[in-house]
Fold this protein.
Amino acid sequence: MTTASEGPAFRYTAGLANDIEKKWQSYWVDNGTFNAPNPVGSLSTGAPLPEDKLNVQDMFPYPSGAGLHVGHPLGYIATDVFARYNRMLGKNVLHTLGYDAFGLPAEQYAIQTGTHPRTTTEANIANMTRQLNALGLGHDRRRSVATTDPKFYKWTQWIFLQIYNSWFDEDEQRARPIEDLVRDLMTGARTTKDGRNFRDLSTAEKHAALDEFRLVYLADSVVNWCPGLGTVLANEEVTTDGRSERGNYPVFRKRLRQWMMRITAYSDRLLDDLDLLDWPEKVKSMQRNWIGRSRGAQVAFTSEAGPIEVFTTRPDTLFGARYVVLAPEHELVDALTAPAYPADTDERWTYGRSTPAEAVAAYRRSVSAKSDVERQENKDKTGVFLGTYATNPVNGDEVPIFVADYVLMGYGTGAIMAVPAHDERDYEFATVFGLPIVPVLDGDVSEAAFTDDAPHINSANTEGLDLNGLYSAEAIDRSIDWLVEKHKGEERIQYKLRDWLFARQRYWGEPFPIVYDENGQAHGLPEDMLPVELPEVADYNPVSFDPEDADSQPSPPLAKATDWVTVTLDLGDGEKTYTRDTNVMPQWAGSSWYQLRYIDPENSEEFCNIDNERYWAGPRSENDPGGVDLYVGGVEHAVLHLLYSRFWHKVLYDLGFVSSKEPYRRLYNQGYIQAYAYTDARGVYVPAAEVEEKDGHFFHNGQEVNREYGKMGKSLKNAVAPDDITRDYGADTLRVYEMSMGPLDTSRPWATKDVVGSHRFLQRLWRLVVNEETGELRAEDRALTDEDAKQLHRTIAGVREDYEHLRDNTVVAKLIEYVNYLTKTYSGAVPRAAVEPLVQMVSPLAPHIAEELWSRLGHQDTVTFEPFPTFEEALLIDDTVEVPVQINGKVKARIDVAVDASKEDTEAVARADARIASLTEGRNVVKVVVVPGRMVNIVVK
């Protein structure tokens, strides 16, 4: 109840809204209103479940210490609206939210403050949970999880072991247990990768042979080493200028032994199954481009150090290959580096050094800090001649071998045949280094590479290969056939996707369930030894180095926990001393499977019972991949989280642990809430809340600042806390405002001054049911007028359609229109039949006020499960239609006629209209043209 100074005693104000919201939030918790039952297990009620269900999910949030700003709940409110609407349709709805709580921010805060990361993480989770609960989100709180809970990451470690103990059967195109492979190798049904007889190998050799098949393996690979952070970073954590996204430290390319996941084995399935998904086409395209499947040939250029394997999608241009380029990290670089340069070597090729070895060493140092993106996009081509030559397989030409940074180890073989006449980057390189540019397609190459299709020229040899006159499609096929026939190459399907670097030199992450024996051989731990919990350490900091020290070596924080690292275990052959892995998993690990734990969060025997998974996520038809029914989140996760989770899920599917082929059946990318931000003369952002406007200019502490527009957030200092809005207006007002700002999939501007409009709408809604002066109910039992019924049923029909398609902004518009109609029509009592359906329609958007009004209307039960109102088709159709009446082609009047009126009846009504009658009186009607329902034209003289 408000005070007299705030207006009438029973007006809907912020104070009353806050009281109502606390009341109903407590009611929902006390009554388990949003608890969704499972078919089996501890969350089962034993009662039959509705076949019609909905599994709706938001992308896993990170519990930041700064808490939420009003941009964060946009998607959470939208999924809550959708979930509430579907509950009213009678569906069993699973909706919850957990926390992706491992990661570098909490660890760095711990380093700065000396507070354990778990302490700050749990405090952040508690604060974020409080903020989310205040919004009235209908979550099943029993199902909420945090990746940092040992009860959760026990199963993250268990899934890791399932992947580690699996291999990909290329014949069957699926993962299988490693035991199947061992059986095949022992019987001779399969051979090792190098063709040796598995039975003849030593124990250590057998381990090594199996590791070459495993879906998780240790490999010496080129990684992004950041000395300033003391850790290896994923490509996605490195900026385009070769620095760490967090901290802005230099990042160097370095070869280290790291855990890798063989996601590349699933390249084809990850690509092909995109067609099964109801996802935005933009996201599908991003994944297709990231995987990058292309057809071509693997060709061998011979050299003194052996064959240089090159993958090309254009083997038809081999006749134009004028040099070979290796990535600086290529394993053959050292072997191909000559002791000295030939006497006639062009000075441009030597990088200013006297010997090839000196030039290569200097060049490698210069490019080690560049990111892959920077190397690919750099127009200033650099490189080093190795002093040796390779032989072109189609014409026998000797071509020089270079090292250059525009070639990456991450695609193909790390070596290319350079065809400068028909590749822009090769053309740029050849121009800088004075290399020949020989066209093999009939096009002009005098100023730039010719990259269009054209008949081949200069493309024949004496060994039966003649491509002259052919266009590319036919020439590619013919050249591949020739290479295969002559044993100089083979057809290949190549991918840009690389195996997943799956290790971090940090503390705050999931420990690997791996130990090493005295020979350094890795062993997966048995399930009864899980979880491997993080030990307590005094220092969370990885050993960091001078940010410019590219030669430094990682030393993870867990290595300091010596009592934890060295452990005595019995793994089946007696007690032995083992060493634990001191790396941790990347933050992506927990988010790669959490949607499955939501389904069965209290299960201590398995990560997710398949009967529960089949009910909530199983396929509905032959071509349905299964998965979460609606997954909402930002497009920035298109190729990382979404690709990784698809990979993990497919392995679990292959091994029979889930019935669904995909984790997320339908994906929806919400937009962002943006807001004005302000920078001072230094370009530094200042708090937007402290900026004042005067005469169109903006000032902070008396100094004029510049205004710009950007995504709301901490970095731009333009965040608005939801706590402030709910305090000043109520949570329902915030929910209605955010949903009304525009289409969910577009970004929208935040303006606190506009929030009052949504609050006034809820006040008008309140006044339709409650007398502001007395608190008495205004609704009474009385019949709807025909116009009432028409307005109500049209609103119901439109609102149902919009809720179904996540068009909440137009839901708000339709409800405002209906509230305005009732407000104008009734100054006193309002028909109960007009306002009860209105309260039901409002409840997904503004559930607290809806619950309160529903209760005041005399209902004992929550509005949550009330059937959503239905409409009558007949009331959506107009009985009459307005028809313009023209005289000699100019509209002079408008008439209302029955929708199905005949030409004769329409003409009669038109002639009877007083204005038309006066204008035609005494004049000769030459002709009357009637288009039923559209127009009448009377021609007079």
In short: The longest strand covers residues 216-226. Confidence is low (pLDDT under 50) at residues 1-5. The CA atoms of residues 89 and 533 lie 44 Å apart. Residues 159-288+503-588 form one domain.
